[in-house]
Specification:
Blueprint (H helix, E strand, L loop, with lengths): L1 H13 L10 E3 L1 E6 L2 H16 L4 E4 L3 H5 L9 E5 L3 E3 L1 H12 L9 E5 L9 E4 L2 E4 L3 E3 L5 H4 L6 E10 L10 E5 H11 L16 E4 L5 E4 L3 E2 L8 H14 L8 E11 L6 E4 L6 E5 L5 H16 L24
Parallel strand pairs: 2-11, 9-17
Antiparallel strand pairs: 1-5, 2-4, 3-4, 6-7, 7-8, 10-13, 10-14, 10-15, 11-12, 12-13, 16-17
The structure holds flavin-adenine dinucleotide.
C-alpha cells in the first residue's frame, strides 16, 4: 500500500503540465462501497489501513449515501471516498515511458534464452528471435513470460474477465471508480495465499465499476486462479452484470459492447519481484505485479533505475528482492 501511494504521487508529478504523463493520468477519487455487514467490516478495515498510511477519506453513512451518489441502489449501506486517487491509461503509460526513455525498441521479437553474466566480466547474454544481445545489465520484465526465462520465479496466472459498455452521455456520470467490498475480500484472500477462483463462474462476484474517459463503463472482474486462457464465459459475465445492475440500476439501460479477459502474473506472497538476482551479475527482475502493475509502474521503473545506478531506493523496495529467502515460495 505504501509503495502504491508513493507511485501515485509520482504519477501526479509526471502528469503536471508538460510532464510525460500529461493526458495519460487523471486525478479522481475512488469509492469503496459495501452492501452487507461483513462487506461493511471489510470496507472499514481497508479504510483504516489507508487512513493509517495518511490517505484522506470521507465516510458517508445511512441515507446520506444515496443522497451523495444518487445512482447507488438502496441496499448499499457503506461508502468511503478515497481522495486523491487517480486513473492511469495503461497502454498510454507504456507508450509514454518508452518514448521518454529514448530506448531502441525491437518489436515482434522474443527473448528465447538467457545466459547469466560472470563476476567482473561480461554481463548477461540474451538469445532472441532477432539475434543475440549482449549487455552490461538485463532486466527480465516479461510478465508471465518471465517464467520461461527464469523458471524459479514460479509465477502463476490469475485470469480476470472484464466487460465494456457502450458510450452514453445522458446517463449518470460517476465521480470516480467504485470498488465493492466483495472485490476487497477476494483480493485479500489471494494476498494471504488462500485459494481463490479456480475457473468457475460461480465465484465471479468481485465487482469494480470504472467510468472510462469516453462515457463508457469498464465492469469487472473475476480473479481466477491458475487460468491463463484468455477466453470469457457467459455465466461469469452474466453474474458480474447482474451484480453491477443490482448495485447501480442505471447500468441496466446500457448495452455491453465487448467482453474480454486478461491474465495477471501472481506471486506466492502477493508482492512483485523487483531487484537484482543474487549470484548473477547484471541480471535484474521486474515482474509479478499481479493486479497492480499500472499503479506501480512509475515507482518500479524509478526504483529499478536507482538500483542499477547504485543509488538509494524508496523504503520497502528492498523487501521485493526476487530471491530473498524471507519470501514465501509456492509448493510445486
Ligand atoms: C483483468 C485485469 C485487471 C487489471 N486491473 C489493474 C488495475 O486496475 N490497476 C493496475 O495497476 N493494474 C491492473 N492490472 C494489472 C496490470 O495490467 C499488470 O500488472 C501489468 O500489465 C504488468 O505489467 P508487466 O509489464 O509486468 O507485464 P505485461 O503487461 O504482461 O507485459 C509483459 C510483456 O512482455 C512480453 N513478453 C513475454 N514473454 C516474452 C519473451 N520471451 N520475449 C519478449 N517479450 C516477452 C509480453 O508479450 C508482454 O508484452 C490488471 C490486469 C488484469 C488482467
Amino acid at each position: 500500500m505504501n509503495l502504491a501511494i508513493r507511485s501515485r504521487e509520482q504519477y501526479v508529478g509526471l502528469a503536471d503540465k508538460g510532464g510525460v504523463m500529461q493526458g495519460a493520468y487523471f486525478s479522481r477519487s475512488t469509492f469503496l462501497a459495501a452492501a452487507n455487514d461483513w462487506e461493511v467490516a471489510a470496507m472499514h478495515a481497508q479504510a483504516d489501513e489507508l487512513s493509517r498510511a495518511g490517505v484522506s477519506l470521507k465516510v458517508t453513512e445511512g441515507s446520506d449515501i444515496q443522497k451523495s451518489i444518487p445512482c447507488l441502489a438502496s441496499n448499499i449501506s457503506g461508502l468511503v471516498e478515497v481522495q486523491g486517487e487517480g486513473h492511469a491509461v495503461g497502454y498510454k503509460v507504456v507508450d509514454r515511458f518508452l518514448r521518454a526513455s529514448g530506448a531502441k525498441v525491437i518489436c515482434e521479437a522474443s527473448a528465447l534464452k538467457l545466459q547469466p553474466g560472470v563476476k567482473s566480466g561480461r554481463g548477461p547474454t540474451v538469445q532472441t528471435s532477432e539475434g543475440v544481445i549482449e549487455a552490461d545489465d538485463v532486466v527480465v520484465a516479461a510478465g508471465l513470460g518471465s517464467n520461461a526465462l527464469l523458471p524459479w520465479l514460479n509465477l502463476w496466472p490469475r485470469r480476470g474477465q472484464l466487460i465494456v459498455t457502450e458510450r452514453r452521455r445522458s446517463v449518470y456520470k460517476l465521480p470516480g471508480n467504485f470498488i465493492f467490498a466483495s472485490y476487497l475480500l477476494e483480493k485479500k484472500k489471494a494476498d494471504v495465499g488462500q485459494s481463490v477462483d479456480s475457473g468457475s463462474a460461480a465465484r465471479a462476484c468481485a465487482l469494480v465499476i470504472d467510468p472510462l474517459p469516453y462515457d463508457q463503463y469498464l465492469i469487472g472482474g473475476t480473479r481466477e486462479e491458475d487460468d491463463d486462457d484468455q477466453h470469457t464465459e457467459f455465466a461469469a459475465v452474466q453474474r458480474i452484470l447482474a451484480r453491477a445492475v443490482e448495485y447501480m440500476p442505471f447500468l441496466g439501460e446500457m448495452s455491453v459492447i465487448r467482453v474480454f479477459a486478461g491474465v495477471r502474473a501472481a506471486t506466492p506472497d502477493g508482492l512483485p519481484y523487483l531487484g537484482q538476482v543474487k549470484e548473477a551479475p547484471g541480471l535484474w527482475v521486474a515482474t509479478g505485479f499481479e493486479g497492480d502493475g499500472i499503479c506501480l509502474a512509475p515507482l518500479a521503473g524509478d526504483a529499478m533505475a536507482r538500483m542499477m545506478a547504485g543509488k538509494d531506493i524508496p523504503p520497502g523496495v528492498e523487501a521485493l528482492a526476487p530471491d530473498s529467502p524471507q519470501r514465501k515460495r509456492r509448493e510445486s
